[in-house]
Write a structure and sequence with these properties.
2 copies of one chain form a homodimer. In chain A, 39% of the residues lie in helices and 20% in strands. By secondary structure, the first copy, chain A, is an alpha/beta fold. Chain A binds a DNA duplex (30 and 30 nucleotides) through α3.
DNA sequence: GGAACCTTTCAAAAAAACTGAATAGCCATG
DNA sequence: CATGGCTATTCAGTTTTTTTGAAAGGTTCC
């Protein structure tokens, strides 16, 4: 047994026959002569050992098996068409896959609708989301695990060779849970007062680079968590205190679950950035570079 | 532009080349001569207008576009193989789809693992689950909406022409919520006492047949619900009282959420049945007829 | 430098697909 | 019930596509 007798020509023939209603009409549509279709169909029927058409009546009627091959075959034909155009795309500079490293300061879910839109247009380009924290996000880019990263500035290593696109500014706010002792203080709170409570810190995911830490590190009590989401939840639960990015907690400030506290430590604003290998002209990379905006990331806050 | 230049032969060629590592080895595996592969590949490259192999080095290396076609092509080849064998199956008596009507007295989820097993074996045979209640389940079979039904006996219309397979016996228990006034009665409860409380009744889904009702109908107060699951939940919530099938409430009896009450009305045991059109020799039907057992339905209770 | 691979080219041969005319069946119409 | 118009199939011959094998040209490895 050599191999599968089902051919793409058969699938196209079945489709045309079903659409036009007869061998004759289908033949015309396919720029062939009816006997050519008979030949195509009979060949497969013989090789497969089953009937695709019921010839008892004089108008050929598809058998259930024929119908199955038609139905599934349409999907296969569609796949092959998509595949051909995707192959052309890739040959003309679209990457087969794009890996996006997202720093935990952003909500990866913000990118979902963007990725969905992209995938609609480019079904065979796989998009991978990878999570990182602080220097760890940069490390993804540096060690080749990601093609594009989304991070905050001030974290980039001194290394050359990376293109950086700055997006909107982000603000950090020092907040505590609504039940927290500091929540009631209306005046500026001193560092000593803050030192009474554990600080929640997001742990850098880097393996090789020097880990960075944001905010105070000279506090004695410190709880580290793997992601910004954990930090937010920990602070809401009252486990500790610390700065949180405004765009991630707007909702909780509005609802009152988190309360801002004035602190002496100046708020150092910083920027959301996109970064990628210099010289990477991939079109998928470019697409995301254009489409990832402050709005998409939820940074367009009126403060 | 006639049509897609990608052929199944190309996909098979790419697969072989990738597996064997060279045109020469692949050619051997495909019982061809190397130049035949060159021809196949070059033809598609020319028609598609892109390179599938990088010939700058001496050993041909697949381009990203070639790799994409290979990767997706493997899936397509697999699909076509499955399709061929499924078509043979259907031609030899397996139905393209099987519609199973399940009476609300059973938990449809009991069939899930069975359906999963079936689908593993017969990926192209679609299984539909349809819900019905009382005569409505029979109606599914009679009006051709279902090929196989799962019901309780005593509901079958007098009509001829249906094959019935009896499964295990099912018991009904009169139960009330744990907080219900009747829950504390340890002696037999009279009909008058029961009449104090609304009875929960599953409404027959039939459109054409004479609707049946199980249990008492001469009670004044009656709440009808669409499914057995609703009835169970209503009784747990204390909304009313009534008989419930033991196999659906074993768990709640054990946990004490439902409490059995002795009643004068005799418990009329009835049987789970499978029914289908006489003369239906479909193999999928047969498969389910064999595999749907008392155990699968959760009827194998030690009482 | 030579042996052992590899891929490609090319003309010829083989195989497959297609054609057109003839055949035969059904069905609606008059 | 005959006829014309539709259908699909058969078959022999033709065209197109695919395959072949020998020759040529490269790379790698020893």
């Amino acid at each position: 047994m050599a191999h599968n007798p089902i051919t793409l020509d058969l699938l196209r023939a079945l489709d045309a026959i079903d659409q036009r209603g007869s061998f004759a009409a289908a033949a015309t549509a396919l720029h062939k002569v009816p006997s050519a279709l008979t030949y195509t169909v009979q060949k497969v029927e013989q090789d497969l050992g089953i009937d695709l058409f019921d010839r008892s009546g004089h108008r050929a009627k598809m058998t259930p098996a024929g119908r199955l091959i038609l139905d599934e075959g349409r999907g296969i034909l569609r796949d092959i068409d998509t595949l051909a155009s995707s192959a052309k795309k890739i040959a003309s500079g679209w990457e087969p896959e794009l890996r996006i490293g997202v720093d935990t300061i952003f909500e990866p879910s913000r990118l979902f609708s963007l990725i969905q839109a992209f995938n609609q247009e480019h079904p065979y380009i796989k998009v991978h989301l990878i999570h990182g924290a602080l220097s760890g996000t940069w490390e993804l880019l540096i060690n080749g695990s990601a093609d594009l990263i989304l991070s905050g500035d001030g974290l980039d290593p001194k290394a050359e060779g990376y293109e950086i696109k700055r997006l909107a500014e982000m603000k950090r706010v020092f907040v505590v849970s609504k039940d927290h002792p500091l929540a009631s203080k209306s005046c500026t709170v001193s560092e000593e007062e803050i030192a009474e409570y554990p600080t929640i810190v997001v742990k850098d995911t880097t393996q090789l680079l020097a880990p960075k830490t944001v905010g105070w590190t000279r506090h004695h009590r410190m709880v580290t968590v793997p992601t910004m989401q954990d930090k937010i939840e920990a602070q809401i639960a009252g486990l500790g205190v610390g700065f949180l990015p405004l765009h991630r907690i707007k909702h909780y400030l509005d609802s009152g679950d988190l309360v801002p506290v004035k602190v002496s430590q100046p708020d150092e604003p910083f920027k959301a950035i996109l970064a990628y290998q210099k010289g990477n002209t991939g079109k998928a990379l470019n697409w995301f570079r254009e489409h990832i905006t402050a709005e998409v990331l939820g940074l367009d806050l009126q403060v």
